[in-house]
Amino acid sequence: MPWENNGGGGGRNNGGPWGQAPGGGGGGPRRPGGNTPNLEDILNRGRAQFGGGLPGGRWLIVGAVLALAAFWAANSVYGVDEGEVGVEFRLGAPKQELAGAGLHFLIWPVETVEKVNISALQTTIGTASGSGSRANADDGLMLSGDQNIVDVRFAVLWSVANPVDYLINVRDPEGMVRNAAESAMREVVGRRPAQDIFRDDRAGIAIEVQQITQTILDSYGMGVRISQITLENAAPPAEVADAFNEVQRAEQDEDRLQEEARSYANTLLGDARGRAAALREEAAAYSNRVVQEATGEAERFNAVYAEYVNAPEVTRKRMFLETMEQVLGASEKVLVENGAGGSGVVPYLPLPELRSRDNTSTEQ
């Protein structure tokens, strides 16, 4: 063959293909005559060893084809669980149709699938206790509007509304939800006093944080819906908890004393108003009585005057007798009638004094 005579000496097997003698530095196998085997001999020996074909023959080829078919089918058939949807991609572009629960088929590797959990998810931020790793413990530390540091623990309840946007528009959707919710909470807490966070307006804070978080996520086109923000706990940092509790107790005592003072003031005011109302009623009754008496006296005078006009003499005599009755009826008097012989009693006897003594002795 051509390569058997490439040596520089011109003789058969006197040199290698590049003119080097076979024994010059090579350690290759030698033929019985002292010459190295050529390529044609090597191929002939290989064909003789394998009997003129591959081991197993055509069954090896069939097995390889079946293995490839099984591998392709395993990658082309997929299942979707309840609470999930499958988003199929054809050459990297998402399909509009979503795969629901069950078995589905795609053409792999031209088409691939990504599964998305569309059930309600929860992300918890903060610790409100200072425990755990330092990185997680610092998530809930926030500065309030009245320059107080509060440790807030809250939960974000959210779900996937648009699976395609959820997979494509943001690299780390869960991390984005966490960061947006934490940013919104810090913004709201920074505008409010600490008392609103602890007890006064927790519901209002949760609603405002939900609205801000939803606005941020919509601006990124994440396809996520925030269903609820829950403030689980809010407390001062552990390092200043004792001092903060003292302040809280002082404020509670202040509120209690103010309530007691208002209650006492309302009691006094109610009593004063009651007495004022009673005095007004008594004055009205007295005024009504005086007016009625005056009206009655005037009517009686008019009646007497009418009788006087009709019979002046009789009226005068009657008025005289009534007046004397009123004058003499209230005074002490003693009537002494003359005896049959015309003799009287002692010209003067202190009869009123004697009667007073008699009454005193009777009472004793």
TrEMBL record:
Membrane topology: Single-pass membrane protein
Disordered: annotated span: 1-40
Organism per entry: Devosia salina
Gene3D superfamilies: Band 7 domain
Keywords attached to this entry: Coiled coil, Hydrolase, Membrane, Nucleotidyltransferase, Protease, Transferase, Transmembrane, Transmembrane helix
GO molecular function: nucleotidyltransferase activity; peptidase activity
GO BP term, pick one: proteolysis
Stated role: HflC and HflK could encode or regulate a protease.
Domain of life: Bacteria
Gene this protein is translated from: hflK
Compositionally biased residues, Gly residues: 1-31
CDD domains assigned to the protein according to its UniProt record, in alphabetical order: SPFH_HflK (cd03404)
Protein name (record): Protein HflK
Quaternary state and interactors: HflC and HflK may interact to form a multimeric complex.
